[in-house]
Design goal:
By secondary structure, the chain is mainly alpha-helical. The chain is built from eleven helices and six strands. 72% of the residues lie in helices and 10% in strands. The strands form three sheets. A two-stranded antiparallel ribbon has the order 1-2.
Length: 294
């Protein structure tokens, strides 16, 4: 083991072992197709195929790969609105997530600073935030549909390029994702040492310079924690939103395959959601590290 650790191979081998164990457990509980032959009342042979196992409707890893292969090997193919390659679906979802996430940061960060700097603002709005924060995206989406009903943005060809469902999706992603940014930014601002603020007063720094030279650098680690949590929530919400409004994307594809009883494609969607969420979190971690060392 020390030899592997010295070569840093344990970072590859141990996760590989974990993946293989999970695949093995999946294969054990998955159903298996069995073919039985019997004779009917007229003496004719009747062949019947049925599935057996702990979870008989759960496809095995090999069955999942065979059924999902066209979506993986042709990731950018477009055969129809809800029949596209898995990377194409992921790109559609990520575009919507990026827009909603940007709105969440744009609104949530200033609110967090106000909560951290003003006790009166906190007393007035913190109860409202604590009431709204646990509300499910399944509740926010219908409200968004009401707020933006009738909204239509037409393209050059007269077709709707941005409508009610798009606005409601952005509204839902933004309002669900902004709370970690709000709360962590507020905590970061409150954690700024009073000595730093006293020095800023002695140096007669303006409010703008105090904000950018003292408050933001000191609160940045807390803010990035909020940004990472907000990004994870935004990615979670997009799946629910696409499932509800039937929008093309990973969530829309998952819901379509659920209605079609295509369990292999459901598993493909789940794995895609998990992998993309992991990659987004790692990218945010790298960006945070760059800012901390800058």
């Amino acid at each position: 083991m020390k030899f592997f650790q010295s070569l840093k191979l344990d970072y590859v081998l141990l996760p590989l072992v974990g993946i293989l164990l999970c695949l093995g457990g999946w294969a054990i509980i998955a159903g298996k197709s069995t073919v039985t032959t019997s004779v009917d009342d007229w003496g004719d042979p009747v062949t019947k195929e049925e599935r057996q196992g702990i979870a008989k409707n759960l496809p095995s890893p090999s069955e999942t790969w065979i059924a999902s292969k066209p979506y993986v090997t042709e990731p950018l193919a477009k055969r129809g609105e809800l029949d596209q390659g898995i990377l194409r679906f992921a790109w559609l979802s990520l575009k919507l997530v990026a827009q909603g996430y940007f709105i969440a940061l744009l609104i949530g960060t200033p609110i967090g600073f106000l909560l951290g700097l003003s006790k009166n603002f906190t007393k007035a709005f913190d109860p409202i935030i604590q009431i709204l924060r646990p509300v499910s995206p399944l509740a926010w989406l219908p409200l968004g549909m009401v707020l933006f009903s009738g909204l239509k943005v037409l393209d050059a060809n007269g077709r709707v390029s941005f409508g009610t469902s798009d606005a409601a999706a952005l509204f839902t992603i933004a309002i669900c994702a902004m709370w970690p940014t709000v709360l962590n930014t507020a905590v970061g601002v409150r954690a700024v040492p009073q000595d730093y603020l006293n020095v800023a007063k002695v140096l007669k720094l303006s409010r703008t310079k105090t904000l950018f030279k003292v408050l933001i650098p000191s609160a940045l680690p807390y803010m990035f924690t909020g940004f990472r949590l907000s990004l994870g929530i935004a990615w979670l919400v997009i799946v629910a939103v696409e499932m509800l409004i039937g929008k093309p994307g990973v969530g829309g594809f998952l819901w379509q395959q659920y209605n079609a009883n295509s369990f292999a494609h459901i598993i493909l969607s789940i794995l895609t959601i998990g992998v993309i969420g992991y990659v987004l979190d790692r990218l945010m971690s790298i960006i945070e590290g760059r800012f901390r060392t800058a």
